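In this section we walk through a basic example: taking a raw amino acid sequence and producing a predicted 3D structure, encoded as discrete structure tokens. The instruction is simple. Fold the sequence below.
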Amino acid sequence: MKKTIIYSFIAILVCALGFSFFYNGFSGIQSMTIQKYDEPIEKGKITTDKEKIKTITGILNRSNRVTANYELVYPHDYKIQLKYKDGKTEVLYVNKNFGLNITLFVSDVRDSYKINDKQTKKILDLLLN
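The resulting token sequence is shown next.
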């Protein structure tokens, strides 16, 4: 009986730690707007397609969180504005070619995130097409 309780507790603890480690908190997104960095938000392309948002949210939640702050010498490539169902907004600044096959997504309210170029291409294709 004790072993069962201990094993259950360990399993729950491992699941909770795994969830918190692999989840970046992107959820409840209602729409996404993308535009070139130097364009106003009004010129951006808005996406409200639930399947596209679900796919992009999954990629963002699996991305590698970076807590370091980078001072970039070149401007961002794109801005992606996330509108949440609770009315809040967040802007992700996209820096392609940040590293070898790496794109840096810098949030205006959270940490930064590294995503491989294949996943970045998928995000951009979904939002721009």
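Looking at the output, two observations stand out. The chain has a mean pLDDT of 85. The domain at 26-128 is CATH 2.60.40.4400 (Immunoglobulin-like). In the next section we compare this with other chains.
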